[in-house]
Amino acid sequence: MRLKARTLEGLYALLLLLPFLFTLLVFFLYAFLRAVYFSFTDYDLFSPPRWVGLANYLRLFQEPLFLTALKHTLAYSLIVTALQTLLALLLAIALNQPLRGITLFRTLYYLPSVISTAAASLLLLWLFQRTGLVNQGLSLLLAHLPHLGAFLLLFLAFQGVQVAWERRKGLPTPFFDPALAALSLLLALLGVYALGALGALVPREVRVEVPWLPSRASFLGLPYPLWAIILMNTYTTIPTFMVLFLAGLKGIPRTLYEAAALDGATPWVMFRHITVPLLRPVLFLVITMGLIGTLQLFDQVLFVGGSGGAPLESTITLAFYVYNNVFPSGASPRVGLASAAALVLAGLTLLIVLVQRRFGVGERGWS
Amino acid sequence: MRRIAVLFLALVGLGALAQTQVRISGWGGTDIAIVNGLLKDVVQPRMDREGIRVVYEPIEGDYTQWLFNALSAGTAPDLFYVDIFWSESLFATGRVEPLDRYFTPAERGEFLSNLLQAFTYGGRLYGIPKDFNTLALQFNKDLFDEAKVPYPNQQDTWETFEAKLRQVQERLKDVAGLCVVADFARFGAFAFAAGWKPFDEKGHTILDGNFRRAFEWYTGLVRRGAARFAQDLGEGWTGGCFGGEKAATALEGAWIAGFLRDKAPNLRYGTTFLPLDPVSKRRGNFVYTVSWSLNAASKNKEAAVKVLKALTSPEAQQWVLERGLAIPSRRALANNPYFQRPGKEPELNRIVFQGSTPQGGNVFPFKFRSLGGDWMRPINDALLAVMTGQKGVDQALRDAQAALDRLTGRR
């Protein structure tokens, strides 16, 4: 019997797809179905699973630790996605300018994303120690507030005098004229230095010793250690998304900008009506990937909680909650509960991505 | 030619048949060199006579996860390490073979009784302790000399000990008396000294007046100028501060010796017992111990037990002790000449060994039923909150008690 060409082609396609389908079936579909089954049972890896119906899900929503994890995960995801998308876009636009040596800056700004999360977490621990750079920087800043104030006043004064002088000569000078500002800056620095040397300005005695990581204190409803992770993660993921945005920006035809410029459009109008609509597919990708990635935050929690000494309640996220229940330290595995939590996380991720797609940025470009 | 080949194959096959294989596993790190040496010098020569071959498969990474998975999947080795901390949740699964029928009462009696007790669950013995550790007080002799403060000694109470730490910290400025951690694994020893017990007969945890006395003393050390908070010195454990000469004393077990050998080989240190509670006039301590346990699904239990006996034999423990690698779990080794040798490490090992005896005071194994880390967390959180000034003692203890009540079902 001879097979039809189409059938044969289909069979070849299937054959080539087989390895991928196999891993998908075993490591995704089978694992997923098992997790669904376990989430309805009481299972500790040893005794046979015991059917408990919805008990695990009900217990989850009564457990304070789970609710904390849920709150942290949602807040973390929204804040980090918003921050990193915005900053990556700004950075990409800045690095898209035709300037000399821009490649060097692109490389430099891309560097943070090369750091592994473990190394980044270690940096985070050092930065946020009680005697770390963050506290030292804050101490320095607060101690020199008088200097800062004086510097600002002097700068404004010098700049005002210069601008007034120029305007009296009949030149239309904006207040923050860069050439004049550079001179004012220099003069203001000298002025502050002189005041300091004369003893008119004395640094205040300030020592900031905030325990950022081993802390339960919170800011805007989120604990300090989580804020530290937010900062760190935003910093390390911006470059990756920046590269995506850069690629998107390169794909926008220059002619559109030229036509807009001819019609007298300002940069802001061009940004709003050309850049953003044409970047929409990339924007969709970045936001969706950002949401999915941030909802799965895990390793930083492990490091900041382990070596950083942050209390579990201050850093726990859903992914960590799942792990912590499968392998609780010194106790029997709670696989049923962990599976239920994992499915809640999966459902949540799906829901958020769908909501984002429906009401936020869609994947299609301008219509 | 073919006949020779057949004969050869048959001989090899017979050899393999005659030899029983026993697989053993433990965690990696420094243990790999120790177990390999022990197997080569002591265990395997003995097993060769019995026709048993020991296959050692150390596990790098998270050993507990690996063991739970392997036992669940039926791929676990015949013998494996069990840490006292998670022992009860493992023994409760029924995947570990009780050892009562393999060891006569006389054989069992040769091990330190409180170690055997630690591995007894539901009246049955589930592991033979391979070694153990307790907490001791290490002090930097040079720093104490420099500050002209007498060394801590075994008559010290919390108060006299604290006074010495305060003097050191006052006179040396950039050195802390002690660096404290917000960890029950250290603080607990002081709570035990005060007469507090982790669980009452109903299985509930009550943070009583004794607990509070120890808690106030321990968390107040920083405020009273006797200690600094470890994280503030950029360290995670008291040994780290000690090795970096950031603190004059440390509260650690014999494991600190290996660390100091690498980090500060010339550091002159001495070791003594933990200070006494001035009220109860007793000290407290933890026993951290690890056993060799037998897989209930093992196919060669008899052979595995022979290996287990060889691994914990007097010769094996002598071998380990003489190299200063671990503290033996056999009673007979208490008077071993090794402990009387001059030098900082034999002294450290001696004090750690005696920490488990009546001299150690109120000693508890480092395990908390099957609650593990979940049980310690409320107490650690309370320690942290008070030590970093985020809560008062009353508030912190109230919160911890509420969390413990939820956990132990007292509410």
Keywords:
heterodimer; A: 367 residues; mainly alpha; B: 411 residues; alpha/beta; D-Maltodextrin-Binding Protein, domain 2; 2 domains; 8-stranded mixed beta sheet; 17% strand
Please describe the biggest sheet of chain B, giving its number of strands, its sense, and whether it closes into a barrel: 8 strands, mixed
Question: Within the CATH hierarchy, at the fold level, what is the topology of the largest domain in chain A?
Answer: MetI-like fold
Helix-residue proportion of chain B: 40-55%
Which architecture of the largest domain in chain A per CATH? Orthogonal Bundle
List the domain count of chain B as a whole number.
2
Mean pLDDT of chain B: 90
Any idea what the radius of gyration of chain A is? Answer: 28 Å
User: What order do the strands of the largest sheet of chain A run in, or round the barrel if closed?
Assistant: 1-2
Could you tell me which chain pair has the largest interface and how many residues each side has? A-B, 28 and 35 residues
Give the low-pLDDT segments of chain B.
none
Number of DSSP-assigned strands of chain B:
15
Quaternary structure state of the chains depicted: heterodimer
Overall shape of chain B: globular
What is the distance, rounded to the nearest whole angstrom, between the alpha carbons of the first and last residues of chain A?
Answer: 51 Å
